[in-house]
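Section 3.1: Structural characterization of target chains.
Under the original work plan, the team committed to producing a structural model for every single-chain target entering the pipeline before any wet-lab resources were allocated. The record below documents one such target. The sequence was received from the expression subgroup and is listed exactly as submitted; it comprises 246 residues.
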Amino acid sequence: MRVFLSRWTCLDVASNLARVPREARVAADGGARMAVFPESFLHGYTRIVEPARVRGVFGETSARHPEIAFVFGSFSEERRNRMTVWQDGREIARYDKVHLFPPNGELEIWDPGDRYAALRLDEWTLGLINCNDIRFPEQARALRMKARADLFVTVAWWPWRRDHVWSALLRARAIENAAFCLGCSLAASVDEDERFAGAGNHVFDPLGDPVLTPDEGFYELDRRRFEQVIVDPLENYLEIDGVEVF
């Protein structure tokens, strides 16, 4: 599968909304089957936009490119940090971020979600993960074991100074679950009230090897890489309920 990961700079809301269809055209012209945008890419923590306006842009944009599944990062709706997936003008999946990040005041802005989410796309099963969620391996493991997710789609507002942590966690989730793991982080925020330098975009295969790209936008995910897996948790995992403490 050919995927497009946006390198997004968050400006004012009007500029961000106007850029969405242009970025979608880049994904379409490059032959992407899936396009991914980062967490809170339209409004960040401080800018305000009506959810109905956001949904209108997502619906119109995805309707113009029905061949692409759009993971539109996340936006604020109903006091949730909501990942949303669209295709052919309609929302086909959503996930409300479970593990909010207290240092950024997220507990004051949003309420945590109460379930994980996955969806089928062609021969893939996508597990949806949002930023700080990637620190909790049990979420990825549940998506792998219960939903049979073989591709974790992770969006984030992650700082550049901690890119080494971001990439390490993405790689770890890929290795321990024998699954592909991609991460799409905000590139930057340019706003007088919210300046931010974001981490990089990364894609790792089921062995933890990076999937390289010639243009920092498009990545080819080859399912033949599953054939090289050394330890498959779907076959080797043992459920243990008890812990003995001495």
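Residues 2-221 form a domain with the Nitrilase/N-carbamoyl-D-aminoacid amidohydrolase fold (CATH 3.60.110.10).
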